[in-house]
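in:
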């Protein structure tokens, strides 16, 4: 097929209402006040749509979500936050037909800045036709779009894009997308594919996955979800404060029993090792997967004793709120090795060798430094489940991460203890630190049902920041491990 033109809303995306994506921009790029104001306007926007003035409603949503916001913030949200929600709403059948074209064009009523990164990087589109935000000379969005970016103008731009040729196939909702569908040789409403297109849709082809994403909200903020979040926040703040104070005041041996009282659950599997015996020459190094800043705190709660945790870039507020001691590292290999050895000589220690968190069911590449420093290694698989707010962020203030975790209605932490590594699996048997680190990564991934990956902390921030640097891409049947480096 030479070319395919497809509508985004209601075709490539199952949902034909872009309102929730404007809510995401309002919250992530500006804050709770704008988020609330846009939600209050939803009945007006909905009424305009019912009255046949849907374009006016979209323009109103664009204005409220973006007016006065730095365009760099909108671009950051479009790159780091929106792709995950778009991909979760993707109609795979429609996308596979769309992907079969040699030239692929997406049509959207959202501003191009909101969808451009996603459709090019994940849907493999060549061009995007959408509205253009007007920007001041100070690089602030005015909230207005270029004149003529809706209605018949879309058809004119598609015609100009293909010049004297007709697109081979148009995918859309016939009534709403007639402005460009009439230009195509063949028009198809996405749910009603013909036999040939159905054959294409049945193929096992997947779009580029979203490995790293950011933002605080777990669920796409449809009007009902957004209202639930807003109504919960006052209660969430109170219960988060209570949970934090309790965690700092209650003795470790009692903390695990108290957690259920304040509506957050701990699920423990495996047998935790005993505390270090009197006169022990070195403590145990707990090697944990890294899902949030709470990992070491939760581990200490389960073990009913305060165990120091290695940290790389913990905020001062998080250090202040932490109920356990923290050991700040410098990323200088020699200095960090000495600090870890010193802590192990005094007792047990927690380390997360991924160096940063990842929300998807994968493990990042493990730094091999921990394997060089001790043979008393206990792998611990950590995982957390939240309902409203993610407990980690790359763009926001990381000091609020524990607060957002505890603001969730019923957060769950799962802790799975593995057996201590046998001597033959450590460096004492002649294995390289890289081999040991890879082995620990594999058994932890298997325990969680996750995949291993080459990605590192540097790759995560490179992707979220939109760097042009190249990185290894995931393979279809799993994410292969390359050699680990510290």
């Amino acid at each position: 097929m030479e070319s395919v033109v497809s509508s985004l809303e209601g075709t490539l995306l199952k949902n034909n209402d872009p309102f929730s994506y404007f809510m995401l921009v309002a919250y992530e790029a500006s804050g709770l006040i704008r988020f609330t104001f846009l939600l209050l306007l939803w009945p007006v926007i909905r009424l305009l749509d019912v009255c046949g003035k849907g374009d006016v409603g979209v323009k109103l949503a664009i204005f409220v979500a973006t007016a006065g916001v730095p365009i760099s913030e909108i671009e950051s949200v479009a790159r780091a936050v929106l792709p995950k929600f778009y991909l979760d709403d993707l109609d795979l059948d429609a996308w596979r037909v769309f992907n079969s074209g040699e030239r692929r064009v997406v049509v959207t009523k959202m501003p191009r800045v909101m969808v451009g990164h996603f459709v090019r990087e994940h849907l493999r589109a060549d061009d995007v036709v959408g509205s253009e935000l007007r920007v001041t000379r100070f690089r602030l969005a005015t909230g207005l779009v270029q004149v003529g970016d809706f209605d018949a103008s879309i058809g004119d731009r598609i015609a100009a894009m293909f010049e004297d040729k007709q697109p081979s196939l148009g995918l859309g909702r016939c009534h709403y997308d007639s402005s460009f569908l009439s230009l195509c040789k063949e028009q198809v409403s996405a749910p009603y594919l013909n036999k040939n297109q159905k054959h294409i849709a049945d193929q096992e082809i997947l779009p580029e996955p979203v490995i790293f994403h950011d933002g605080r909200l777990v669920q796409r903020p449809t009007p009902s979800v957004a209202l639930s979040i807003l109504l919960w926040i006052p209660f969430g703040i109170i219960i988060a404060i209570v949970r934090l104070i309790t965690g700092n005041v209650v003795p470790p041996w009692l903390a695990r029993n108290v957690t259920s009282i304040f509506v957050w659950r701990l699920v423990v599997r495996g047998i935790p090792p005993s505390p270090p015996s009197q006169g022990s020459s070195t403590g145990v190094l707990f090697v944990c997967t890294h899902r949030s800043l709470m990992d070491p705190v939760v581990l200490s709660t389960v073990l009913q004793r305060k165990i120091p945790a290695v940290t790389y870039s913990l905020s001062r507020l998080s250090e202040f709120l932490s109920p356990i001691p923290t050991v700040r590292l410098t990323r200088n290999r020699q200095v960090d090795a000495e600090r870890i050895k010193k802590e192990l000589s005094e007792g047990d220690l927690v380390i997360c060798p991924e160096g940063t968190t990842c929300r998807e069911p994968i493990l990042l590449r493990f730094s091999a430094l921990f394997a060089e420093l001790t043979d008393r290694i206990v792998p611990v698989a950590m995982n957390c489940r939240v309902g409203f707010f993610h407990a980690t962020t790359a763009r926001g203030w990381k000091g609020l991460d524990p607060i957002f975790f505890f603001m969730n209605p019923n957060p769950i932490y799962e802790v799975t203890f593995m057996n201590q590594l046998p001597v033959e699996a450590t460096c004492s048997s002649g294995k390289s630190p890289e081999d040991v680190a890879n082995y620990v990564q594999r058994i932890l991934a298997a325990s969680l049902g996750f995949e291993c990956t080459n990605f590192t902390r540097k790759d995560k921030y490179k992707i979220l920041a939109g760097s042009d640097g190249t990185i290894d891409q995931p393979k279809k049947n799993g994410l292969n491990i390359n050699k680990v480096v510290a």
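note: The chain has a mean pLDDT of 87.
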